[in-house]
Specification:
Layout (H helix, E strand, L loop, with lengths): L2 E7 L2 E6 L3 H5 L25 E4 L3 E2 L5 E2 L5 H11 L10 E5 L20 E4 L2 E4 L8
Parallel strand pairs: 3-6, 6-7
Antiparallel strand pairs: 1-2, 4-5, 7-8
């Protein structure tokens, strides 16, 4: 299953299911002109997600990211890592995928920033531990 983010209010987002490539290509645009799934779509429980591909303005090989400064993904990742009752959320991997132009020597980090489990560029990658096994 694939989920896409939708802004719910100030600093808050949820992930909603997108069932096909056609649906993804035809998502309605938000007031910021960003495609977002409708509220009627099934909503993800953050603690049950396996992987979150995290967008970034810039990334570094220490797995730090710079977003757009609103903290939407940092808060969502905290919820996913916090886990649900009976779950520790540890299975959720966070991965930043960037172009070579987005790679910086060092991205500034603040206490509320969530460090990623991995970053991948066309010519380099870095992982907190062993990269996920290919199947």
């Amino acid at each position: 299953r694939v989920f896409s983010p939708r802004v719910m209010g100030d600093g808050w987002m949820e992930m909603f299911e997108v069932r096909s490539a056609d649906e993804a290509l035809n998502l309605p645009l938000s007031k910021w002109k960003i495609p977002e799934p409708p509220l009627e779509s099934p909503q993800a429980d953050p603690a049950e997600l396996d992987v979150i591909l995290v967008p970034a303005v810039a990334l570094d090989l220490q797995r730090r990211r710079c977003g757009h400064g609103a903290g939407f993904y940092d808060r969502y990742i905290q919820r996913a890592r916090g886990g649900a009752e009976g779950s520790d959320g540890a299975h959720c991997r966070t991965i930043g995928v960037g172009l070579a132009e987005q790679r910086e020597e060092e991205v500034p980090e603040e206490p509320h920033d969530e460090r990623l489990d991995g970053v991948v560029f066309p010519d380099a990658e870095a992982w907190a531990e062993e990269p996920p096994q290919q199947t």
